[in-house]
Amino acid sequence: MAVTAPPMRKLCFGGSFNPIHHAHLLCARAVAEAKGFDRVVLIPSALPPHKLQTTELASPHDRLVMCRLAAEGESLFEVSDLEVTRSGPSYSIDTVRTLRRQGWDRVTWLIGADMVSILPKWHEPLELLREAELLVMARPGWSFDWEALPEPYRVLKERVVEAPLIDVSATTIRRRVAAGQSIRYFTPDAVCGYIAARGLYRQTGRPD
Q1: Confidence of residue 121 (pLDDT cuts 50, 70, 90)
Q2: Can you spell out the DSSP letters for 78-119?
């Protein structure tokens, strides 16, 4: 009698990925390994709701391609174009609902610790808490005043996962590109090459 393999456990990791870099990849890997996930699904957003006014955002297509280049040859990561191909702001709750309609029994969504304080301002945040399991990726030593959050969100206190402290940011990468400095070792070589070939971020450098 054939033994049915257990379903693959997938961890969704959304973001602007402007551009994706090694801290994204290493920290997501750490969370996946700590919690026993088989795959991390990178979901680049088309229009990040908290960055609608930024002038530094590379096109959704470019950010999708960079995610695919970063994940190439790595069995842990896969890339979804779900938000890139959807119109309007890229709300996480809409993506969760789409995944559920596609047959996902459970959606686990990874957010950065810097998002916890503003989570109540997200689009339909209470519905997101109900329809997805949120995990919080935090740096070593991170602390937060959980009593400052409305009570329904305090459940996240038990869902904090420590990730490595890696001082690399997309803002730093964009600034270095604008200044004509090398970004090698900040992001995979294939992403470095794509940024150079496409001329991305050359006229930017302001934080967002």
Answers
A1: very high
A2: EE--TTTTS-S---HHHHHHHHHHTT-S--EEEEEGGGGGGG
In a domain, 162, yes or no: yes
Tell me which residue range forms the domain holding 76: 10-167
Residues 48 and 90 sit within 8 Å (Cβ to Cβ) = yes
Give pTM, 2 decimals: 0.92
Q: Encode pLDDT of 14-44 as tens digits.
A: 999 999 999 999 999 999 999 999 999 999 9
Give 67's contacts (C-beta < 8 A, 6+ positions apart).
17, 20, 42, 44, 79
Q: Answer whether residue 172 is part of any domain.
A: no
Q: What is the CATH number of the domain that holds 136?
A: 3.40.50.620
Instruction: Judge whether 90 lies within some domain.
Output: yes
Assess if residue 195 is contained within a domain. Answer: no
Residue 80 is which amino acid? S
DSSP string, the chain: -PPPPPPPPEEEEEE--TT--HHHHHHHHHHHHHHT-SEEEEEE-SS-GGGTT-S-PPPHHHHHHHHHHHHTT-TTEEE--TTTTS-S---HHHHHHHHHHTT-S--EEEEEGGGGGGGGGSSSHHHHHHHSEEEEEE-TT----GGGS-GGGGGGGGGEEE-------HHHHHHHHHTT---BTTB-HHHHHHHHHHTTTTT-----
